TrEMBL record:
Species per Swiss-Prot/TrEMBL record: Streptomyces albidoflavus
GO MF term (any one): DNA binding
SUPFAM superfamilies: GntR ligand-binding domain-like (SSF48008), Winged helix' DNA-binding domain (SSF46785)
Keyword terms, alphabetized: DNA-binding, Transcription, Transcription regulation
InterPro entries in UniProt: GntR_C, TF_FadR/GntR_C, Tscrpt_reg_HTH_GntR, WH-like_DNA-bd_sf, WH_DNA-bd_sf
Residue ranges of domain HTH gntR-type in the record: 2-69
Protein name, as recorded: Transcriptional regulator
Domain of life: Bacteria
């Protein structure tokens, strides 16, 4: 049974976001098929999807290449995310389930604990999990998918400095969850907008010198057993 194009697309996207495939580097079907242990057919489909998402561009005489976003495009993404995340939180206040609340509250407890211990790496992953769960709690698959794609693009374009006061950041997360739990949509929207605005201040563009080509990935090359 062949590996679906969706899995290949996820693998290529993750490697673009993590910098394995550098901005502007060529993405040939043959090279990618070897790298991920698949045929060229799912690679071709994956590249079309990634081009629609803005991660890949097709250039005359060069074919598919990793996109090279401008500073303005990167700034626009942050602005769009700052508009959509509060919307997602407001919808979560109306549509969340008890299961969503349980996960969100658990993440806040873990985040506050890790903040006290100064475990920055854990805080980054917990923060991503928190915002992903909050988006899912909106009950809107389209909005969830859009927010997920925005966060991936922001991760690709920006380096994020650790917040100066991580405990305060997680206190804000806790306040958002409280508003969501009470069903207070406007409070959830306002708190999330304030949190997003403060969080944006620690973003730094990754743009700068780059080496064209493909770096060695830390992940398994073949998808079977190596990727979900």
């Amino acid at each position: 049974m062949g590996i679906p194009a969706q899995s290949v697309c996820t693998a290529i996207r993750e490697d673009i976001v993590s910098g394995v495939h550098e901005r502007g580097s060529r993405l040939t079907e043959e090279q990618l098929a070897r790298r991920y242990g698949v045929s060229r057919v799912p690679v071709r489909e994956a590249l079309r999807t990634l081009e629609a998402e803005g991660f890949v561009v097709t250039r005359r005489h060069a074919g598919a290449c990793v996109a090279e976003p401008t500073e303005q495009e990167a700034a626009d993404l942050l602005e769009i995310r700052m508009l959509l995340e509060p919307l997602g939180a407001a919808r979560a206040a109306r549509r969340r389930t008890e299961a969503h609340l349980k996960v969100l509250r658990g993440l806040v407890r873990l985040g506050q604990e890790r903040a006290r211990l100064g475990e920055g790496e854990d805080l980054r992953s917990l923060g991503a999990w928190f915002h992903e769960t909050l988006a899912q709690a909106s009950g809107s698959p389209g909005l969830t998918a859009l927010l997920t794609q925005l966060r991936q693009k922001v991760t690709w374009m920006y380096a994020v400095d650790p917040p100066a006061a991580p405990a305060e950041s997680w206190a804000e997360h806790g306040a958002i969850v409280d508003a969501v739990a009470r069903g207070d949509a406007e409070r959830a929207r306002t708190l999330t907008a304030q949190h997003a605005e403060r969080a944006t201040a620690v973003h730094r563009l990754r743009f700068g010198s780059r080496t064209t080509g493909v770096r060695t990935s830390q992940h398994a090359v073949n998808i079977p057993g190596g990727r979900n």
